[in-house]
């Protein structure tokens, strides 16, 4: 199982150093991936976690104020990078085409993308969830060479579930995961209010290859309980 930790915009330098000490003490046989904020990437000292970024620029190095390139991430031994998170799609108005460009830049540096996809509450109520997810994945992945395409980790995150405490039923998760896997030969993570209280139920879904955790990523004690149950 893959357990990816998205710290989002949290933890100052001293907080992060203390947090990392606790994180390094977590005992698990599962693959752990940590995505801190950009400013905390240089502070990562660990032998138990793989390093990820939360975002990457569509551009290479150059006159792009405020951006962080794939080349820069590579220089810090970043191995994975989240792309297409719903918060960026909504707040930064990222398009599927921009996400495609980011994936291409990451592969130029041998960084594996963690591609997020998912539907809003309105889209699910309208029965459009598969249509939305298929379009997000098609634009981002279908122009890639097969070898690169298969390396991408897909994270299904129903937008209406992120940070709300609401989670889809196991049947709903299984339906989407099977739909994705019928089209792409990739690992599929689940994200959206997964925690140590509901993992006993979630782990019954046999199509889940791991989890992308937001709020829980900031609580090492609860995270240890989560991986123990997992």
Concise summary:
The chain is of the alpha/beta class. It has helices at residues 13-24, 70-75, 86-91, 96-108, 121-125, 129-141, 146-151, 170-183, 199-202, 220-229, and strands spanning 2-6, 31-35, 50-53, 80-83, 112-117, 153-156, 188-191, 210-213.
| Helical fraction | 25-40%
Q: Provide mean pLDDT, rounded.
A: 96
Kindly, what is the distance between the CA atoms of the first and last residues, rounded to a whole number of angstroms?
A: 8 Å
Strand arrangement, major sheet: 1-2-3-4-5-6-7-8
Structure characterization notes:
The protein is α/β, with parallel strands linked by helices and 230 residues long. It has ten helices and eight strands. It has an eight-stranded parallel beta barrel. Strand 6, helix 8 and strand 7 form a beta-alpha-beta unit. The chain is globular, with a radius of gyration of 17 Å. The model has no long low-confidence stretch (mean pLDDT 96).
């Amino acid at each position: 199982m893959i357990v990816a930790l998205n710290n989002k915009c949290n933890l100052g330098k001293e907080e992060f150093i203390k947090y990392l000490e606790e994180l390094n003490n977590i005992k698990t046989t599962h693959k752990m991936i940590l995505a801190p904020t950009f400013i905390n990437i240089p502070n990562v000292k660990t032998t138990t976690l793989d390093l990820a970024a939360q975002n990457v620029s569509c551009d290479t190095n150059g006159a792009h104020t405020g951006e962080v390139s794939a080349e820069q991430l590579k220089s810090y031994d970043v191995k994975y990078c989240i792309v297409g998170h719903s918060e960026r799609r909504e707040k930064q108005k990222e398009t599927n085409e921009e996400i495609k460009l980011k994936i291409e830049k990451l592969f130029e540096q041998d960084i594996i993308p963690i591609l997020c996809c998912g539907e809003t509450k309105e889209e699910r109520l309208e029965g459009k969830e598969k249509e939305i997810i298929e379009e997000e994945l098609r634009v981002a992945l279908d122009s890639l060479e097969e070898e690169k395409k298969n390396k991408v980790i897909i994270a299904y995150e129903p937008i209406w579930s992120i940070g709300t405490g609401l989670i889809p039923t196991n049947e709903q998760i299984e339906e989407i995961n099977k739909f994705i896997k019928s089209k792409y030969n990739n690992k599929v993570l689940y994200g959206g209010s997964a925690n140590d209280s509901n993992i006993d139920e979630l782990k019954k879904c046999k199509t889940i290859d791991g989890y992308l955790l937001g709020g829980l990523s900031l609580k090492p004690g609860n995270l240890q309980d989560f991986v123990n149950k997992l």
